[in-house]
């Protein structure tokens, strides 16, 4: 590997940015493509697919063979609220490959006994997220039903460009949330990114069922990043 390419990959890893090493198997030359960099034609389509799937692959384009080696940051799931849904969602998300982080200033809920083996911060989201900033490879699920706790976290997630932002609550509850976020100066285009009611509509009722619906929606968002924007451009 070219030393410059290795340096760039390491920089992307430190910055939690997705990158891909494209190697021409014919002449051995390689280059680093950072997610969002323009790559035209069929090779560009293969690069986008590799970023979404997180699967390295060999592709043939115009008579040339390339190996696409994907380097994605580990996806993070930040849950605001050490609640029953979080107790079910945390182990599921860890099995699916997510780094899990639970934040709740209510010490009666945020106890190590209820969340063994999971990063847990019993403090306000503003404080915890200042130390561990959100980014484009983070999903945030606001689960407390308390605007004082949920709203600042939602605003931080929207500002950071998290690939998924969801909030627990009915449509009536979300309508009030929209009013609060709008009053706080959050653009309507950003508010529209909030998945609320949270989770896929599978008729989930119990905390474990809701956790399944939420994790499924998060995975769907992770694997379809960028597709909605391209559909809009094609319309």
TrEMBL record:
InterPro entries with a match to the protein in the record: MoCofactor_Util/Proc, XdhC_Rossmann_dom
Coiled coil: none
Top-level taxon: Bacteria
Ranges for domain XdhC Rossmann: 77-218
Listed Gene3D superfamilies: NAD(P)-binding Rossmann-like Domain
PANTHER family per UniProt: ALDEHYDE OXIDOREDUCTASE MOLYBDENUM COFACTOR ASSEMBLY PROTEIN (PTHR30388), MOLYBDENUM COFACTOR INSERTION CHAPERONE PAOD (PTHR30388:SF4)
Name of protein: XdhC family protein
